[in-house]
Amino acid sequence: MARLDYVETGSEVADRIRARRGGRLTPLDGMLLHSPPFADGWNSLLGAIRGQGTLPGDLRELAVLRVAELNGAEYEWAAHEPVAKEEGMTVEQIAALREGGDRSVLDERQRAVLAYTDAMTRRIRVPDELFATLREHFDAREIVELTVTIGAYNLVSRFLVALEVGS
Predict the structure, then answer these.
(1) Is residue 137 part of a domain?
(2) Lower CB density within 10 Å: C or N end of the chain?
(3) Which CA distances in Å does 75 have to 15, 58, 81, 132, 152?
(4) Which residues are the signal sequence here (predicted)?
(5) Closest CA to 7 of 36, 46, 44
(6) How many domains is the chain partitioned into structurally?
(7) What does each of the 167 residues of the chain score in pLDDT, given as a tens digit?
(8) Whole-Å CA distances, 78 to 5, 66, 98, 120, 157
């Protein structure tokens, strides 16, 4: 059970969130709407990540799912696993993101994203050697978008877990 009640509202902020989400609010949205300005900013940032970047969707979702796994955010995993499939990830590739998963099913770019996600989430500081590997596979814009995605979904997962959203 969530630690706070969910908010259902007819506010302009809620309407903007519904517009991005195809007419519905999720439990995450219902929790965020306790603070409409924060919910609005969150909606703008996550909307840009999901719909305005150049980073391929399968790599974005790989990072999101790995963050969810590392932070124990099962609600986030459940929300993004179908998106990862829609973006072209296979069941085997998705399973590889779980602890102890078979990483051999991932290609070089996917393994670079996985390593970067792990470094940013577990240790924050990214080793120079890992960043050099990332630069072999991605341009500056993609690296910025990947970095923002990993950081943002660390925020999402920690918010979800701390407030027990969706449980």
Answers:
(1) yes
(2) N
(3) 23, 19, 10, 33, 16
(4) none
(5) 36
(6) 2
(7) 999 999 977 799 999 999 988 989 999 999 999 999 999 999 999 999 999 999 999 999 999 999 999 999 999 999 999 999 999 999 999 999 999 999 999 999 999 999 999 999 999 999 999 999 999 999 999 999 999 999 999 999 999 999 999 86
(8) 21, 12, 13, 22, 12
Query: Is residue 111 a contact partner of residue 78, using CB atoms and an 8 Å limit?
Result: no
Residues 79 and 151 grouped into a single domain = yes
What element of type H or E holds 108?
A: helix 108-118
Of 161, 156, 167, 157, the residue nearest 38 (C-alpha): 156
Give the integer Cα–Cα distance in Å for 157 and 80: 12
61 vs 10: CA distance, rounded Å = 30
Q: Is residue 83 part of a domain?
A: yes
